[in-house]
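Please predict the structure of the following assembly.
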Amino acid sequence: MTEISEEMQMKIFDLLEGNLSKTEADQILMEINRSDVLKEEYQLMQMTYLPKKDEVALPLPFRKSLYRRATIIPLGLFARAAAVVCLIGAGSYVFYNTQQDQIKEQIPKQIANNEGVKNDIIKPIDSVITSDEDGNMTKSVSIIKSKIQNNNPNYSTIKRKNITRNYNDSDIFRNVVRVKPNANTDTFAPVIAPVIAGVIAGVDVGKNNMATNTKSNKRSWNPVEVILIDEPMRDTKTNTNSQASLASRFFKSTKEHIRRGQTPDIDIKFNRRKLKFDFDFVSHL
Amino acid sequence: MTKAEYNECVQLHSDGVFRYALKNLRDKDEAMDIVQASFEKLWVKRDRVEYKTMKSYLFTIAHNAIVDRWRIANRTTEMSEHQENLQVASNHEYKGLKEIIEQAFATLPSIQRSVIMLRDYEGYSYEEIGEITELNPSQVKVYIFRGRKTLKQFIGKLEALV
């Protein structure tokens, strides 16, 4: 085998590497074509080039481990618990509101359709009992006075309405709003009026005997005159009683007043600090 | 370099880095270690690396890691191994051009293997190979030439035998 000079080997190498200009490349190629030895050298040198496509590849699991993915915070136990609480809360809210709406719809109907007492009239009177008439009260207690007059001698049929049985104490005061305060009363009156209304709503009044508003002459509950007197809260036995028992005693006393032909003269008191209601019958049996 | 660009880099070049490490070290586990370490370093320094240069940067990291392994190994052993490999390889029966080249390629000195791989597989210029391997372009060219010459001689011998 004829030895090829180092220079010629380098030229063939440059040719294959693409380091030569077109003229130089053509010149070398002509030389190669003229000689079998150079042709063989050229072919051998060509074989030393590694194929671009090689089957070497990383194992897939390992390759996947190299990627950087977005951080995903797993939904932990706390997050799940919070989600459940939110769902329950939302469900309860909807359920509660539905119930409240139903109660509000039912009460007026039940009151309007109540035919338990046909001949009784309980309506708030137009006259106002002012603080002057209750001189024995002290000035720093919130006292609301209302007066209920029974014009019907058939007092014995007055009884407590059954509708209140289905609701708890707070519902009586919150939802059974049937009495509006007079516009010229104290600003506190609108707040306390529902309480009075709740108490009155407990009294069974017939549909046909519903009190008439004397001013508008419309068939509705009359406004109850309420007078707020700032007097210290008296320490009465009823202070600590529940609203249910308060209402119960109210009806019992009212009934007794009416039975005796007396007008019940009632002080309804509100303890602002304790947010409690109380009442006293000013008129004595 | 963003996370997406980094992931693209993994997609495009992880196999190349692995091949480069595997053919230099001839050990799959060590090659995977090199790949892992290279991409780890690339991720850590991703803020300083631009998208255009990420491939070179990656191969530079890989090459340096490979060189570190070479330094640990005994160079004299490598040289004697090279001679042995040549003799063993020449005794093998003819299988195919690809296998012959791979056999011969495995016998080359490490630096020649590296530059030839970077040239053939990755298509780098002498200058780019020089940056990766910390050699000047002339040295790169010489190493490539010497490597090819050795391979050519090996192939020529086998052809003569056949």
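The radius of gyration of chain B is 17 Å. The CA atoms of residues 1 and 53 of chain B lie 10 Å apart.
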